[in-house]
Amino acid sequence: MLTVKPPIVSVDWLHDNLNADNLIVLDATIHKVGAKTDDKKEKQQIQNAVLFDLKNVFLDIEAEYPNTIPSEKYFETQVQKLGINNDSCIVVYDDIGVYSSPRVWWLFRVFGFENIAVLNGGLPSWKEAGYMVESKNERTLSMGNFKASINKDKISMTEEVLKASRHNKIILDARSKERFYATEPEPRKDLRGGHIPNSKSLPYIELQVDGKMKSKEELQKIFSEVNPSKEGMILSCGSGITACILALGAEEAGKTNYSVYDGSWTEWASRLELPVEK
Q: Could you tell me the pTM of the whole model?
C-alpha cells in the first residue's frame, strides 16, 4: 500500500505512483481572490482526479464567515462520497500551483488523516513536466470507509487569538503586506483593513518560487527567523485558505506546533469590538 511521509511531493513522485491501488488524487482548485478568471477555458485535470469542492461542499454552509470548517460527521460523510478509505493515500493539487491545495491537506490533518501530501507546483508543474492531462471527468464513485477524528489543537478560534494577541504570542498573517498594513483595500467589500494587534506579516508568496514551495532548508530558515523558539504559532489570512500554505511550510520545516485561525481576517475585521492595527 502506498504511503507518503513528507507533506509535499513532486510531480515526478506522483507520476511514478499514479497507478497505486490506494492512491486518490484530489483537485482542490478554487478561484484566486481578486484574480480574473477565464471560464471559457476548458478545464483539465490529472488523470482520474476527483474534485474536492472547497467552496460548495467542504465547509460549514450555514456559517457566518467564508470557508468555516465543517463538523466532524459532515466531513466524514462527504469524504466517503469521494471513495476515500482509511487506507487511501491522497495527493492534492490545484490549478494555480500551491494555493488552495494546502487547505485540503490541513483539513484532513485536522480530521485525523495523515497519509496525504500536496503536489508541489500543482497542475502547471505537472503539465510543464510533460505528463498527461485529461478533460474534466466526473465519475460515479463508490462510498469509502473514511472515519474522521477531529484534532482541535490545529484550529484556533477568535477568543484564543485575542488572548494570544494581548500576550504577544506568535500570530503570522499570510496576506500581502499591503493588506496587512491597509495600504490597499480588502477584496471583500466594506471589510476593515489592517491586522490583528501584535501579529507579524508573512505573505504566503514568500514561501514560494514560481508557484512551488521553497526547499525544506529555505523554509526552515524562514520559520526559524519568525519563530526561533518552540512556541506555538497561530496562522491567519483572509478567510482561512492561504494560512494553510503557512501551515504546510511550517510542517515541512519541522515546526509542527501551529494552528490555523478558522475565521481569519474576515471574522476579526467584521467583529467591530475587536481591535485593529494598521
A: 0.96
